[in-house]
Amino acid sequence: MTRSYYWLILGLSIPAFLWLLPTLWMVSLSFQPNEVLARTTSSTFFGLVPLPFTAENYSALFAFGQTPWWFLNSLIVSVGMTLGVLAVSTTAGYALARLDFPFKTPLTIICLIGLMVPEQAVFIPLYTMFADFGWHNSYHALILPRMAVPIGVFLMLQFFRAIPKDIEEAARLDGVGWLQIFWYIMLPLARPAMMTLAILTFLYAWNDYLWPLVSAQQREYFTITLGLASIQSNFAQSEGLGRVMASGVIASLPVVILFLIFQRYVVQAMTAGGSKG
């Protein structure tokens, strides 16, 4: 390896470390006693080394009875929303990319226009509609409004358009129907794009705060982000800096693990889209 290669690695490592520094600092502070953090503004290596070490902040959070339940709520909402987005986006994207039916072009334009509408603009109609149905403070109230997302339909539309039509034509010559083509041929080919969409949707659902804040008024339906914010609504009423940092680690750890496990699918989708484009 040439010297320039090592300089490149060094040049990339420095901004990577600076990007990770706040996260490392948050994790370190979460393992330090609140008493130590309260009486000093700096600790070993600017707080990056947790001395003295304690797991009291985490045990105190989980000792609060509803924290595990909020975790379960976030998992149910995130998985349900991810499955719903995949079902709607793949079917709609395939229909708009491959099938011929009346008003196809206007529907595609309407879907693309939806990309320009901020979600906050439809909160009042959504809240009123779900209130009329009596669906607030329920799982389906947290899941259904996010199932039809224009960006998901657009992503799958572009991916299906990039697949050569010769594959479908060969299947039709063998007497295969469009539903079988979609299920047995197109979906396996679209797996990288589906995994990318699933990861992005899960991350969005897990980190979502605004809609659960509007729809869930009962604490048993709080998600983890809303629940942790409710017990630490402001810094003065919280149990200390270490507890605040521990709640941040707990809320972000599942999505970090998810991305590390499935990041290769994101790379595959990007490279596939670039080569087909």
Automatic annotation (TrEMBL):
Coiled coil regions in record: none
Membrane-spanning intervals of the chain: 6-29, 75-97, 109-127, 139-160, 181-206, 244-262
GO cellular component: plasma membrane
Residues annotated as domain ABC transmembrane type-1: 71-262
Keywords recorded for this protein, A-Z: Cell inner membrane, Cell membrane, Membrane, Transmembrane, Transmembrane helix, Transport
Role of this protein: Part of the ABC transporter complex UgpBAEC involved in sn-glycerol-3-phosphate (G3P) import. Probably responsible for the translocation of the substrate across the membrane.
Self-association state and partner proteins as the record states: The complex is composed of two ATP-binding proteins (UgpC), two transmembrane proteins (UgpA and UgpE) and a solute-binding protein (UgpB).
Descriptive protein name: sn-glycerol-3-phosphate transport system permease protein UgpE
Species of provenance: Cribrihabitans marinus
Lineage per the UniProt record: Bacteria, Pseudomonadati, Pseudomonadota, Alphaproteobacteria, Rhodobacterales
Annotated gene: ugpE
